[in-house]
Amino acid sequence: MTSALPHASETISDRRYLIPFRSQLLPQIFTDVLVIGSGVAGLRAAMEASTRGEVIVLAKGALDRSNTALAQGGIAAVLAADDTREGHIDDTLVAGAGLCERATVETLVDEGARAIDFLLAQGMRFDREADGALSLTREGGHHRRRIVHSDGDATGTELARTLLAAAAALPAIRMFEQCFALDLLTAGQGDGGDERVLGAITHHPKYGLQIIWARAVVLATGGVGQLWRESTNSRIATGDGVAMAWRAGAKIVDMEFAQFHPTALYIAGAPRSLISEAVRGEGAKLVDRSGRRFMESLHPLGELAPRDIVSRGIIDHLARVQDSCVFLDAKQMGSTGFRARFPGLAQMLAGYDIDPGKDLIPVTPAAHYTIGGVATDLDGRTSIAGLFAAGEVAWNGLHGANRLASNSLLEGLVFGRRAGAAAASEPTARSPARLVSDIRPSLRAELDLADSRSSLTSAMWRNVGIVRSGAGLEGALDMIEFWSRYSLDKIFDDLHGWELQNLLVAGSLVARAAAWREESRGTHTRTDFPTSSDRFLAHSVWSRHQAEPAVVALGEVGVLA
Prior knowledge:
The protein is an alpha/beta fold. Among the domains are: 260-366, CATH 3.90.700.10; 449-531, Up-down Bundle (Methane Monooxygenase Hydroxylase, Chain G, domain 1), CATH 1.20.58. It is built from 16 helices and 21 strands. Strand 1, helix 1 and strand 2 (55-58) form a beta-alpha-beta unit. Helix 7 (240-248) packs across helix 15 (495-516). The longest helix has 22 residues, at 495-516. It is globular, with a radius of gyration of 22 Å. Residues 1-23 and 433-439 have low confidence and may be disordered.
């Protein structure tokens, strides 16, 4: 392994298994379906698959540690009498800036109410009005109140609790905590060299390396949010699923599109905690240090414009006024009103001596959601037999070039269910009796893992962040190539080394895709190509077998998987 760049003589996929051993037979476990990830998509897939066989769910950390559990805003669905199917579809298409797959959007919206009914049946607590009706709020890009939520701003926590409890009660599901999936196991099928996924190699701190054989594997590992220095994501969002799928030969689509949330808490030395879009949905305004609003002149929806527009508006305004952050003004809600609507946020902000009823909240954009990912059809099938994907790790054309707020939890529910059902129907494949590593010891020096990761995330923030340029992207690719040369060929024996390798793979894919898309569209903004172009009304499809992307027109989502 020498490089992560398309012009290199070797590719990042030449090294198949990231396992720190040679010629050693591993302990083996067998199941029908292996689900990698314990967020909303993984748990919903596991519950559906368990109706027809045994399921193992792998959690890289604790079972309740996921981006799902961090979600504040809520779940979008057409539930109100004054809302319509067409309204939710149109809002999603507009936010997606021309790149949504309409069939996928229609599937999501049509199955939305059923997904909420499923959660209610599992005992999920939603906030309600005095008359008992579900309380609905509005977020950026929505023209109607269609967001259901729990405990004001703790929807993800309640959703994770509900699904974990429901899954744990099913005897066909086994859950493994602290179990890291290093790589997918594949075997060639037929003369054409097609691959089939047969399971995964995993590592557990207590039990060590293991092989888990499965008829089908569902990737639900989340996104690549930890690629950027400023991020609202859980520490575990290191692109593991995208990297594993890429090494296995799966198609990866539209990695240039990553959504940056406009409002993350900006306090020196503090985590970039998310300040929910629902705060703006309840009337909070964005102002600068002098108290001036600036979004109302940039978009008819003002602070409730799609997230890409708000994030760029903040970045542009900060450049003009030469400041480090802007502020959310929620004082019209009052201290009591804010605490009642957003109790979790109020408690978190109180730790920094901020009372939103009296004080401005300092905010800045931060990496939030991965829009591109592993190509799937509407049932989660990827381009590799036996491999499925759902949730943030997957791409099915739903979000286009920019995700509409609160569509992601619904996506996990709808397409997680579909992926689980399809995976459970996957036929049995014969497994090889023995597998050994073919990694050779590296002759190159080893870089410091923590320093390399910090340097990578800083470079991605500067050069592959909210605003990009051809020169900056080229510089980022050069740096990724250097770090890859000293990291991708190493045999590591801990989580941090494996995560760095996956981040380098994901970072290379994001930067390469961003360099290819010579336009500004949705979340992707190029200073050297400031307008959109009809030439790029298409998807960029990346494969380890090709140095350049395939370009696939809209409407061909089923062809990719």
